[in-house]
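Entry 14. Ran structure prediction on the chain below.
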Amino acid sequence: MCNISIKCQKCRSELASNDSSTIVDCHNKPIQDTLRITYSCNENVMENNWYLASTALPDWINTSIDEGNWQKGKLICPNCTLRVGSFDFISGIKCQCKQFVLPQIHLVKSKVDIYFR
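Output, structure tokens:
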């Protein structure tokens, strides 16, 4: 398994990593290698989000979800207040193959940088 660190694009503070949370693909499977990082279930479509499993999350995300009453809300970088993602435990949007529901918590790729350690 590769070691991944996701950082805010604006201030470079660490938002998530394999140590603090599980980074998953659109089918809610842990990312095992760099090939699963780029594409969604459709190999020809770029995925715009990094998904996080809701089982083990950094404290700042848990706080945001608690403040949103486990419904819907935005994820704001705790260091610089850039909107970096969101969570939605209500909608249950399906992935492009229509077989899986997307993970409820995501970070937007254009707002974060990913590093391999």
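The chain has one domain: 4-116. Will compare against last week's run tomorrow.
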